Amino acid sequence: MVQSVRSSRWAVVAAAVTVVLWASAFVFIRSAGAEFSPGALALGRLLSGSIVLVVILAIQGDGLPPRAAWRGILISGVLWFGVYMVALNWGEQHVDAGTAAMVINVGPVLMALLAGYLLREGFPGRLMAGIAVSFTGAIVIGLSNTGGGSSGALGVLLCLLAAVTWAISTIAQKPALEHASALQVTTFGCLIGTLTCLPFAGQLVTEAAAAPLSATLSLIYLGVFPTALAFTTWAYALARTTAGKAGVTTYVVPTLVILMAWIALGEVPTLLAVLGGLLCLAGVAITRSGPKDSQTPSDASEIESTTNPAAVSPPLPGQPRT
User: Fold this and answer.
1) Of 195, 169, 212, which Cα lies nearest the Cα of 42?
2) Is 308 left (phi over 0), alpha (psi -120 to 50) or beta?
3) DSSP assignment of 115-138, as one string?
4) CA–CA separation, 179 and 304 (whole Å)
5) How far lies 129's CA from each of 164, 192, 197, 244, in Å?
6) Residues 183, 64: contact at Cβ < 8 Å?
């Protein structure tokens, strides 16, 4: 029982780190995006993240992931680390941050639906209710930031593409985490994403030479923290909960973006934005409330570790799975 509680606490901490760092990415993408094109920004971010992850992987002594994990790593590497980042960077050049956040938050809905069907997680009533409340909050936040103007069709389509690739990648990543550690899945996914974005190398070199130091530091920050660290903590949390619950947790991100923009950029949130943020938080609270009437595979392994002394405990971040 003690092991189960500790694992649950680590998963909550990992999810909290993820949403805070992913929220900060919106502010830093805006900063670096003024100097770097979408592809160059994605490649620079992935290069920075890959360097950090490979160093940590070497220190930990982890080797290559098992063969069974590679399918999920390849899919998430190309789609999430590659296509997603380029599409999001490009989309934010055509629509405002509020609209982008609203469209991106289609992702957790698709995630829950795909997980319910493909991963057989089902469609728990509390999860569906929480998604509905949080998605309504995301729409309210988006409406509060549109400024009355019409969003470009291209920007909306690009953000929708990012949301779809995020959802598909999470569904592919979940089975991979049954065979490899969060650090292995993230590191090799990031490396594959870097290879996917190599066609933008020329743009990155040219733009980096002309970019001010602040933009370059923003790019490096995006690689080290919202990518290397946050993607690893996301994988760690995903391995210990359902894909549907992991996805709905990210509805906290738009609320944090509003607060960060208020503090860092002096953008005072409207009453509508505050209402939307509260709805997002309420939706997440709904999915986390209530009795534990069902068990995920990771829950079952935790219970086994408390009843069977020979069972293997869930690894901490960076430890390979046996």
Assistant:
1) 195
2) beta
3) HHHHS-----HHHHHHHHHHHHHH
4) 18
5) 21, 36, 38, 12
6) no
Mean pLDDT over each residue of the chain, to the nearest integer: 80
In this prediction the pTM is: 0.76
Token pair listed for 143: 């409406």
Hey, is 20 helix, strand or coil?
A: helix
Q: Whose CA is closest to 276, among 172, 139, 174?
A: 139
66-102 pLDDT tens trace: 999 999 999 999 999 999 999 999 987 877 665 666 6
**Which helix H or strand E contains 40, and what residues bound it?**
helix 38-60
293 contacts: CB under 8 Å, gap ≥ 6: none
Q: How far is CA 84 from CA 8, 107, 249, in A?
A: 29, 11, 19
User: What amino acid occupies position 299?
Assistant: D
Find the radius of gyration of the CA atoms of the chain.
19
**Rounded to an integer, what distance in angstroms lies between the CA atom of residue 111 and that of residue 318?**
25
Residue 65 backbone dihedrals phi, psi, to 5 degrees? -65, 155
Which secondary-structure segment (H or E) carries 57?
Answer: helix 38-60
Cα-based angle 120, 227, 279 (whole degrees, multiple of 5): 60
Q: Among all chains, which residue has been given the structure tokens 């009843």?
A: 307
Hunting for tokens 């990648």 — which residue is that? 169
> What is the distance of C-alpha 24 from the center of its chain?
12
The first and second tokens of residue 66, run together, are 């098992």
